[in-house]
């Protein structure tokens, strides 16, 4: 439970369906200057209040050390290596569907239920599939591609077939005082600033000024720190140029930002590592699928070839300008999420 409308309505639906519900919130690590948004005192109070209204027990479980090791440190290290990590992936895989599921079982729980917008389907062969939410505007299968057969078998998504507007309406019908609570959008642990401020304070060596180079390695400007930029970025370069310039790549060895025009940017081939195939095994032959390279980006058709060592080669039918090392490439066939991996640096 987060104290928000999605997890609160999920709990109410489960109670209505006859489940014996236990409410759990994780106390997560945060920057010393602020509270983690996922478990701030007001969120804890709201979640505890909802549990009281719905008449089930509520627990707060300390996961600060585990969260720091599994989520925060890889986030910092990723930027130090010049990639753009997505910390929600490690949080889902290692904290929610590992640490939390283990603690929930110790409390006697058989399933972990969350307010995510996604669906789980069991096949005739008793395999589990992860499907997109009915509400495609809220679909969260992208960040859930890390789930395994074991974790899916122990998971319930009560909001699977609902839209956000329906969820808010249900909150009102259940008389839950969170119907209009806004969604949280920012990284939960970075405090009042943004991730750049967090990185500067946490490890100043990550963000040190360096040269901006064109594709011919000519210096055309200076950047304030590589962590301030991501592949495909156009705004904020602070370079005077007769044509629009975009971030093409980062050169960690030279601490250089490489920029060029749009024709330098598009790519049709890239690789991904740490691939999780939700079916449990990779396909033996190349497959046709659509690939999503950011949570909010459209899907692009392509061919995926499984390689040794949990890696894949991805060949797109049309080039994409913002293929970013550290972000996830997630694979779909229609509504079915096949899995995904982390985009590899060149």
Q: What does this 3D model show about the protein?
A:
The protein is of the alpha+beta class. The chain has 3 domains: 1-115 and 158-203, HUPs (Rossmann fold), CATH 3.40.50.620; 208-264, Adenine nucleotide alpha hydrolases-like domains (SH3 type barrels, Roll), CATH 2.30.30.280; 267-343, Elongation Factor Tu (Ef-tu), domain 3 (Beta Barrel), CATH 2.40.30.10. The chain has 7 helices and 16 strands. It has helices at residues 5-16, 41-54, 64-80, 87-106, 149-153, 164-173, 195-202, and strands spanning 23-27, 58-62, 112-113, 118-122, 128-132, 155-156, 210-213, 219-223, 246-251, 256-260, 267-277, 287-292, 300-307, 311-320, 328-333, 336-343. The longest helix is centred in the N-terminal third of the chain and has 20 residues, at 87-106.
**General shape:** globular
Strand residue percentage: 25-35%
Number of helices: 7
Question: What is the strand arrangement across the widest sheet?
Answer: 11-14-13-12-15-16
What is the N-to-C order of secondary-structure elements (H for helix, E for strand)?
HEHEHHEEEHEHHEEEEEEEEEE
**Count of domains:** 3
Described by its quaternary structure, the protein is single chain
Identify the CATH architecture of the largest domain: 3-Layer(aba) Sandwich
Distance between the termini: 39 Å
CATH superfamily of the largest domain: HUPs
Number of strands: 16
The major beta sheet can be summarized as: 6 strands, antiparallel, barrel
The chain-level mean pLDDT equals 92
Low-confidence stretches: none
Q: CATH topology of the largest domain, which one? A: Rossmann fold
Helix content: 10-25%
Could you say which structural class the secondary elements and strand pairing correspond to?
Answer: alpha+beta
């Amino acid at each position: 439970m987060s104290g928000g409308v999605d997890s609160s309505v999920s709990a109410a639906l489960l109670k209505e369906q006859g489940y014996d519900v236990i409410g759990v919130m994780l106390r997560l690590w945060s920057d010393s200057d602020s509270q983690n948004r996922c478990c701030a005192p007001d969120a804890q109070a709201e979640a505890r209040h909802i549990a009281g209204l719905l008449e089930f027990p509520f627990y707060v479980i300390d996961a600060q050390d585990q969260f720091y090791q599994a989520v925060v440190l890889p986030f910092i290290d990723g930027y130090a290596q010049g990639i753009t990590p997505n910390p929600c992936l490690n949080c889902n895989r290692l904290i929610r569907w590992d640490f939390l599921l283990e603690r929930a079982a110790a409390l006697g729980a058989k399933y972990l239920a969350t307010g995510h917008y996604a669906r789980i389907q069991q096949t005739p062969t008793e395999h589990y599939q992860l499907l997109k939410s009915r509400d495609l505007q809220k679909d969260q299968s992208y960040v859930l591609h890390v789930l395994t057969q074991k974790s899916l078998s122990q998971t319930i998504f009560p909001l699977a077939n609902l839209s956000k507007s329906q969820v808010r309406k249900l909150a009102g019908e259940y008389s839950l005082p969170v119907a209009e609570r806004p969604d949280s959008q920012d990284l939960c642990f970075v405090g009042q600033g943004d991730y750049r401020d967090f990185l500067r304070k946490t490890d100043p060596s990550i963000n040190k000024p360096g040269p901006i180079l064109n594709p011919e390695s000519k210096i055309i400007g200076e950047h304030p720190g590589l962590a301030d930029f991501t592949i495909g970025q156009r705004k904020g370069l602070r370079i005077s140029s007769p044509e629009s310039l975009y971030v093409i790549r980062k050169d960690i060895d030279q601490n250089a930002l490489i920029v060029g025009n749009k024709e330098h940017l598009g790519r049709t081939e890239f690789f991904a590592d740490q691939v999780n195939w939700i079916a449990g095994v990779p396909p033996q032959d190349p497959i046709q699928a659509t690939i999503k390279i950011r949570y909010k980006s459209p899907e692009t058709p392509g061919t995926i070839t499984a390689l040794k060592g949990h890696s894949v080669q991805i060949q797109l039918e049309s080039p994409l300008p913002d293929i970013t090392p550290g972000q996830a490439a997630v694979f779909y066939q229609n509504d079915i999420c096949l899995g995904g991996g982390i985009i590899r640096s060149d």
